[in-house]
Amino acid sequence: MSSLVKWFVTFPYMQYGLGFLQEFMVKVLRTGPIPRHVAFIMDGNRRFAKYNHLELKEGHVAGFDSLIHILEFCNQLGIEAVTIYAFSIENFNRPQHEVDALMGMLRSKIVFITDEDSFAKRSNIKIRVLGDRSLIPDDILEAVMRGEEATKDNTGMLLNICFPYTARDDITHAIREVSKKVEANELSLDDINLDTFQNEMYTGKSPPLDILVRTSGATRLSDFMLWESNMNCRVEFVESLWPDFTIWDMYRICIKWSYERTKELA
Questions:
Q1: Residue 135: partners with Cβ closer than 8 Å, 6 or more residues away
Q2: The predicted structure's pLDDT at residue 4
Q3: Are 197 and 189 within 8 A, CB to CB?
Q4: CB-based contact 225:212 (threshold 8 Å)
Q5: 114 domain residue, yes or no
Q6: 3-class SS at 126?
Q7: What's the rounded Cα separation, in Å, for the pair 174 and 16?
Q8: Which Gene3D superfamilies does UniProt cross-reference here (predicted)?
Q9: What is the mean pLDDT of each run of 10 residues along the chain (266 residues)?
Q10: How far apart, in whole angstroms, are the C-alpha atoms of residue 184 and residue 203?
Q11: Which of 84, 144, 188, 200 has the CA that lies 20 to 30 A from 6?
Q12: Rounded Cα gap, residues 206 and 128, in angstroms
């Protein structure tokens, strides 16, 4: 039965109908406020692989495919920035075979950033990698830097890839950068405020965070964007595993956010 369903969904006329429906959904959302910045904790790849009797790397590949669909929808909607939690610094504490699998997936999917016919190039998306780059293997770092260079002049949606990242490291980084400017007499102590601190954070060039989504049913932030998830940010905990998270889930979240923001502005 599952094979029949997959064939039905991939049938050309069905694909045309789904594309038409997605365009309609975008038009509906655009009648109201649209979030400027959305972030995702993409949790559940490992459990997806386990539940579907797949190898671990296949779970991460399924998660990557889901990410592409969500990015396409966000870009089509006109969201200015999307930030994804690709790899936590704490992930280095996982079993070595799992770390190797994650790094292997990054190596195989780096074409997403660097290839001439990549999604980022075709969609006019600008790529930024946020985190402690000293922890990134040299071959991946080189490819990441090429990708950032190749997309730096793109004028579409900004995609922040947090890798490797934790919010505590981000805050520590910002403190260090502010301190350097004070020592260099580029900044006085009286000039230090929320804005100057925010500007030195990894996400300092992004709009304020409107929505943070975590999948898999877990109700914790896992050291992700703790500073940005303030009272003006809506946090959505979703039961779906990340590979099962679809544009329909994203549509529901955006509709709810738009409705509540409209009430606030009334």
A1: 89, 92, 164
A2: 45
A3: no
A4: yes
A5: yes
A6: strand
A7: 47
A8: Decaprenyl diphosphate synthase-like (3.40.1180.10)
A9: 46 58 86 96 94 89 91 95 95 86 75 66 89 91 86 92 95 96 94 94 95 96 95 94 95 95 86
A10: 23
A11: 84
A12: 10
pLDDT of residue 255: 95
Give burial (CB, 10 Å; 0-12/13-18/19+) of 3.
exposed
Quote the CA–CA distance of 116 and 80 in Å, as a whole number: 23
Tokens 């079993």, located at residue:
95
The reply to whether 182 falls in a domain is no
* C-beta atoms surrounding 43 within 10 Å: 23
User: How many degrees, rounded to 5, is the angle at CA 63 between CA 162 and CA 40?
Assistant: 40
Residue 2 forms part of a structural domain: no
Q: Mind giving me the DSSP string for 212-244?
A: EEE-TT----TTSSTTT-STTSEEEE-SS-GGG
Closest CA to 239 of 264, 214, 220, 209: 214
Pairwise CA distance, residues 181 & 179, whole Å: 5
Total number of domains constituting the chain: 1
In SS3 terms, 7-72 reads as HHHHCHHHHHHHHHHHHHHHHHHCCCCCCCEEEEECCCHHHHHHHCCCCHHHHHHHHHHHHHHHHH
* Helix, strand, coil % in the chain, rounded to nearest 5: 55, 10, 35
Q: Would you say residue 38 lies in a domain?
A: yes
The letter for the amino acid at 92 is: F
| Residue in 51, 28, 12, 32 with CA at minimum distance from that of residue 247 | 28
DSSP 8-state symbol, 207: P
CATH number at residue 89: 3.40.1180.10
Measured CA angle at 105 (ends 123, 86), to 5 deg:
65
